[in-house]
Structure formats: structure tokens, C-alpha cells
Amino acid sequence: MLFGGRKVKRKMSSFEKKELAWMIVRLALIITGIALLIWVSPYFAFVILALVLWMGLDLILGLLKKSRPVLPAKDQRRHRHKYHFNDILWLLENPDLVNPEISFTLADVKEDDLYAVLEPGCHYIRSRYDCMDFRATSLYRFYKAGGAFIDKVSPSGKVRNMLEETMLGMKFWISEKGHDSVCYFSENHEITFFVLEYLIGRLFPDRVFKNDKKTGAEKEKEGRERIITWFELRGKYGFSEFYSHNYLPIDFANISLLVLHGDRTDKELMDRAKGILDILCLDYAHSYAFGTIIGAQGRAYARNNINCAFQENTTDLITDAIWNNSEKYGGLYYHKPSQVGAFLRLLKLKDEDGNPIYQVPEAIKAIGRDTDTQVIRSSFGLDLKDIRSEGLYGLEERQIMFQLGMVALSNPEVINNTFDYVNEHSLIYNEFLSPFKYFNISILRFLGVFPFLSRWLNIYPNGVALERSNVYIYKTKDYKLSTLINYKPGSAGAQQTTMAALLPGGVTVFTHHPLKDQEFRTAPGFWGGYGTAPHAVQHENVTMLIHRIPRKITFSPERILPYTHTYLPEELLDEVRVQGRYAFAKKGNTFLALIGASDFEYLPFQKEKVAVMEGLLKNPYKSFELVQRGRVQYTIYELSSADKESYEDFMQRIKSNAVSFDGKNLAYHTGERALALHYGGDFTLNGETQECKFKRYDSQYVQTDYLGEEITVKAGGFTHKIHIRENVRESSVDASTHQSSDNGGENE
Hints:
Layout: E1 2-3, E2 6-7, H1 14-40, H2 46-63, H3 85-93, H4 111-126, H5 132-145, H6 147-153, H7 158-168, H8 187-203, H9 216-237, H10 248-261, H11 267-287, H12 302-306, H13 314-324, H14 341-348, H15 362-369, E3 374-380, H16 397-405, H17 415-424, H18 442-447, H19 450-457, E4 469-475, E5 480-485, E6 492-494, E7 499-503, E8 507-512, E9 530-532, E10 535-539, E11 542-548, E12 563-567, E13 575-579, E14 582-587, E15 590-596, E16 600-602, H20 607-610, E17 625-629, E18 632-641, H21 647-656, E19 659-661, E20 665-670, E21 673-678, E22 683-685, E23 688-689, E24 697-698, E25 703-704, E26 711-715, E27 718-723, E28 728-733
Antiparallel strand pairs: 1-2, 3-4, 3-24, 4-5, 5-7, 6-9, 7-8, 8-12, 10-11, 11-18, 12-17, 13-14, 14-15, 15-18, 16-17, 19-20, 20-21, 21-22, 22-23, 24-25, 26-27, 27-28
Helix pairs in contact: 3-5, 4-5, 4-7, 5-6, 5-8, 8-9, 8-10, 9-11, 9-16, 10-11, 10-14, 11-15
């Protein structure tokens, strides 16, 4: 990336140095060999021409490989039927409940209606369009819940045959044959496909699946092995999609579906599944406040940052189930297009002896209920420079699963591995991987130039990889402030939310550099993700951001916008004051201050920018987008509350705090704290360097070393232990606090 023509340097790993050395050796040998041949005879000069023609032919052959469509063309999309799929599915899965929002009964549905409702989803899956896995999950649930209903409505077998042929024709992993543009990457897609392979294989143990000619029993076994591998990776490295308001619910849903319909006599599989659910619940508990988990997160879209606390959504359905016994949403939310109903059904399910199949451990529930002031540090994932030492570089399924799970494709540490995998499985036809066809030249692969080019050009896709993420959370009864600490400052656009303040009622305030000034729903885009990452740090109630926005990013899909913006919605706050480079806001007893390098400016209300908010902001006389212009700038957040000081005293104190900034060094004095941040360097508190790489979990409830696999949670008089690889999942009660274990302690 360039700042005034100067490139930001990044240290090469030892493996990259070796690859660069081998590239130089290979290149030198080829040049020497050609020179010797020409010296022997000038006619050997044709060797150079042959090499050029070879490279040109490679390029032409690659360009001729046309990507498969990601989505159906608009004129091929099916129209919605009068009976909606999700409504019928809700009625099938909840026969004893009444939903006033559904205006028909199952008795009203005829064969032609049912076929018309199901055929679009089956067509979508058969055509292998992107996100077919999510539709296939719904189709599986429909088939399981609607067996007798399907046969009654369609005695001819027309509907059942369509469903079965669709499931038997599915592709369950990127290495299976067949060209498509389905996204198999990222943790949530992986577990969705693996659970589907396992469960659908169980449905048809003796049937042959069309794509790879394996029987259902073989697919069940293969899916189980992949699930176990995925569980072990999460057990050690956590979730790259950490705290994701959008994607962790998908993990909840699929693992719950696995426990609901999998082989419960398979203790290894079931215990690991429940242990992963425990880890998901623990992550939710750490980030839980005001009924939601909005904050710094691994992958998010616009609505996950802005309005999710004001809309019925999958994450809040989960938190409502864990900490409120589903009293807010209840069962009536199932009919929405969400898979998370599986988690709620799992919480209610009992075995033949009347014991719960799964319970959220009481120790984890206690963390979410605790409103005392808390500092929670956590670390997720792995840096690319470390994947070789962890045995995760290569083409074995476990290795490629981890690489694709962190969406690392073009980075210098893995680009050669990506080329090898793409060519081994003919993945150039996948739209998400099709850019590789422009560089898939065998002589260049042999030379090993791509890691060097990837590093030298610092291309835009490199920023997408979800590397090790260290998150700092500060929670009080009045607010939550969370920050993704020192995450690849200056790197190109990704879907992470680097920081957010969560105020009473679920109101969010966050600052980022937008990638686009249009397409407001996408990520990275205008409200979700970022164009370039800041250097961000936090200490308790203060977050400091330094942005150094480049003029150019190689292969960026958009021009680089020369400003940052803050979502600060006047309509949702009790009071907002913008005074030059200071901005103040009040929500109930909570106070928030922003300090910038230059003056803040509210932009006028624009209906295009609020369309993504789905009716959250309606007052055209209230602003919400606060802009700070300039490519080199900083933003400081500080929060406080009425039990500390008055709002007027808070504003006066903030204005009197000393701030200095020279483009790379930011210093801020507040109270007895002297905070200093050097861009790309250290963060200090009162002169002492602060550690920015955390343990896996570091809070008053959990202490787990980075990459530690044994997690012990202690809270509310309960203790819960998890170790995925060793199949440990144990709960106990502190006898001095509780007289019995009847309050929900679980022993397994």
C-alpha cells in the first residue's frame, strides 16, 4: 500500500524468505541454461520464443474457462407462491403451536401447491448456485418433519421424488467433481456442508449419490470425519468468524441440527458437538450486553452493525433462549427465514429418561447475567505465518479446510498452495477463484514467483484473510466498548468490524473507513467491514484509532475514499452535540465522546443510505453519518456514565484532555492515564508497553492460554470444563454456594 509513494513494510516470514531464495535459484538456472544453449548454437534462441508461446498458451487456455454463474439470472428466478416455504416448515415443526401470522393450515395445501413451493429451492440446489447449502438445510428439515404430510398431500410420489433426487444429487465439498461457483470457504459454509453430508447420508444409507457414486453410508462416514476435523480445529483455534452476529448463528443451527438428528449413540460425535455449542455460548456470554452481542466481530454486514438490536434476528433469538427462556420471541419467530429454531428445539428436547439432551452450562449463563464491570480479552484464529509450524499448510483435507476456513487464498504464505489445489480440482470455473486464471501460467508457478508478487503488490484480496484476532471488551452496566486490537493496520478491505460502542437499548456507534460509497448492504462496503484497517487499541473505556488511508490498493474493486465515517444516529440518541473536532452523545445515563484529528461533519439524511436499516431511521431531519475527512487521521472514543460525573462535566473534561498527533504517533491523557499509540508499533499506558496479543480467553471467569484446548469456566458458583479433542465436557457446582445441583449443573 502506498502513502505518498512510500510502501508500508511488512516482515517476511522464514518460509517466504526460503521461497524467494528458491525462486531466484530457479530463475538463475533457467537463464543460465538458456544462455549456454544460445552460446552452443544461436538456433537455441528459439527456446525463448517457445517459452513465451508456452506462457501465452497457458494464459489463453485459462481465459477460455468461463466461470459458472453464482446466482440465477433475474429472468430465471422463481416467483413467491401464495404459501411460503418457511410458513409450511414452521407448521410442520411446531404442530402443537399456533402462529397468528400464518393465515393457512396444512390442510389447505394441495399437491400442486406443495410442488410449486418446493420446486424453486430444489432447482436452486440442483443448479448449484451460491449458498445452496443454506437452502439444502431447510429442505432437509422439511423432509424430516414432513414425511407423512408429504405422502398424504402427494400420494403419487411426485414431491418426495423431487426432494430425494435433489438431495442425492448434491455436491458436499469443494473437492468433489463438478464445476460451480458455490462458496465453500469460511467456517460457517464448511460446517453446513459437512452436517448435510452426514445427515443426508443417514437418510439414504443404501442409495447411491450421483456426484461421486458413493452410498449414503459412505457419505455419512465421510461427513462424520469432516465434522470431527472441523470440531477439533475450532477446539484449538476458535472461530475466525469471532463474535459474528451474522455467521455464528449458522454454526449454532447446524450443530444443533446434528445433535437433533444425528446418531446419539455416537458419544464421540455428540460430546464434541455439545462442547462446540458450549464454546459458542461462552463467546456469546463474553460479548453479551443489552440483549445482543453487537461489537467488534469477525465478519459482519451493514445490518449486523447498525440495526440488529432493533429487528428480530437470529443472534437475539439465541441470546433470548439462553438468558431469557425465549420469553421475548418465543416460538413464533421460527417461521422467519432462519435455521436457528433448531437450537431452540434442542434446548427443549429430552431423552427417553426425561433428561435434557443439551443444556447451556450454568457457569456460562452466569457470565452473561453478570452486570459488574468486566475486562475480557480473547484471541481467535492463527496468523498465516504460523500455519506451517502448526502443520496446516498443504493439500490434505484438514489443511485445506483450515486455509479455506480463514478465507486465505492470495496471501504470499499460501498462494502457491491455492494454485496447487485449484489446479488439482479444476476450480478455475468457480467465480470466487476465477481471478487465478489470469496468472495460472505453469512456468511462473514452477519459478515460484507468486508469493513474491503477492507481497510486492500487496494486492487487495490479501486483506480478506481472517488471521489471528485479539479482541478487547470492556463492559459495565451502562455500556460495552469493544475493539479488534492492532489488526493488520493499513490492510485492504475485509468484513471485520474493528470497533463498536454498544449503548443502552442496543444502540451502536462505530467508526470505520468505508470501501464503497454505494452498495450499502454489502461487506466490505459502506456500513459493513472496511476499506482499510486502522491501527486500533483500547484500554477500558477508551479506544484509539489511527487511519492512514492509501491512495491506491492493487486490484481494489473501488476507488479509495479519502475519509472515515461514524455511525452516530441522532434519532436513536437522547442528545448529540458536534463541536469542531469533538462530538458528544448521551443515551440514558451513558455518555460518549469522540475526538478527531479534524472537524467532524454531519452529512444530510439520505434515504439510500438508510434503506439497509429496514425502517430503523425515519426522521429526515435527524442525521446519522458523521464524517471526518483526510487520509491521515485519528479518532478517540471515551465513554462514561452519570454515576461517575454529569454530562456537562464529562464534556468539559474531555475538551481539557491533552491530545497530540504527528501523523504516526497519537498521545491522549485522560485522568491519570497517559495513552500513546505509534502506528504499526507499540501501545503504551503511562509509559509501559501493553500486550496486544492475548490469551485465548483472559477474563475473571476463564483463563486459557493461546491455542490452549482445555477451557475451564468458573462463574456464579459453577464450574464447566471443555476439551474438544479429548472429549471432556464436565459441569460441577460449588457446594459452598449451592446446596444442590438441581439448578442446572450438568455432568457428562
